[in-house]
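Students often ask why we bother encoding 3D structure as a string. The short answer is that it lets us treat folding as translation between two languages. Here is a chain of 108 residues written in the first language.
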Amino acid sequence: MTRLKPWMLFFSVKLIELAVQSRPKALARILFHKDREQRHSMRWYTQMGRRVWFREVWGFLMRDVRVQDGPTLAEFWGAPQDAEEASMVFARRASKPAAPALEIGRNS
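And here it is in the second language, the structure alphabet:
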């Protein structure tokens, strides 16, 4: 990115993650959901996300190495693959003709 510093982008994304996960409705769902198993799984997922969140922040601040003149996105990912697949297009396949029915127990 040419106009946004890496730390600005990183912390903007982390702030969005924090805002989405700490909404009152999301917190109430984790604490007061009717289904006990659902509540447990949501709490587990939140705890896992919290650990990952702090580890990503720590990694960005202390471990990751940033370079001034790195590759462009096109150089990093390669050529666009737009024409290779249309995963959201639904096309109904032509149905196969039905096999002739077998009559069992009839003598002709």
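Translate back mentally: The radius of gyration is 27 Å. Keep this in mind for the problem set.
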